[in-house]
Amino acid sequence: MKFKKEFDINRETWNKKVEVHASSDFYNMKDFISGKSSLNKYEVSTLGNVSGKSILHLQCHFGQDTLSLARMGANCTGIDISDEGIKLAMKLNKQLDLNADFICCNVLETSDYISEKFDIVFTSYGTIGWLPDLKPWAEMISERLKLRGFFYIVEFHPIGWMFDYTVSPPAMRYGYQQKESIYEEYKGTYANPNSDILSKEYGWNHGLGEVITSLAEAGLHIEYLKEHDATPYNVFPELIKNSNGLFELPNKLYPLIFEIKAVKKV
């Protein structure tokens, strides 16, 4: 597979992150197990009543969002490249007596592992930056959607990924439409910056034009693209909490997240 080295390194890093993330305040496992949903207002608003709906959740990490949707009555399948993530997701599924399915695979190879078609394909917050090319990603999404089913993504805005956050203050170093991969090594993770694990990561930047075009060329009708100043996660430097409990830049110079909903009409 093309980019095998990069994917293997990313998988190793995410395997190391699972234990750190599962014990972090960021993922708040105690409250999650007690019944708290891990979903945020953006995705809850768009996904709506999912009871009885089939949902494919792409790049699910260790399955909290997948299982939150299952608690809401959806028939969920979560996929992720991390063996350790899927192992923990399956353990949580059993512990919570839910009926979600989990499959370990590269998201670009989803159709090699799953033939079912879904009412909804869903992905969120820090997913597409791990993919070198969005064309096969979008084609897979179209393959896995039922007619009149929809794809929904809520994701960090590509402007945010133009910065190198390994230096302080962050430096604008990477191209908005940069084709070359970005390699970084740093101690800790977004969920626990004080962790001793060494993260080694390859990522790729994708502008909104590339995201929209890849989905449209795969046969999906773009219902909307929304950009927002505020993110549910305090993962960028110097964000402040607003009156809605979300995080934003003090100067609101650029949006921090975007949403796209796209429908399969043919």
From TrEMBL:
Keywords from the named record: Methyltransferase, Transferase
One Pfam family it belongs to: Methyltransf_25
GO molecular function: methyltransferase activity
Ranges where the Methyltransferase domain occurs: 55-146
CDD domains: AdoMet_MTases
Highest taxon listed in the record's lineage: Bacteria
GO biological process: methylation
Protein's recorded name: Class I SAM-dependent methyltransferase
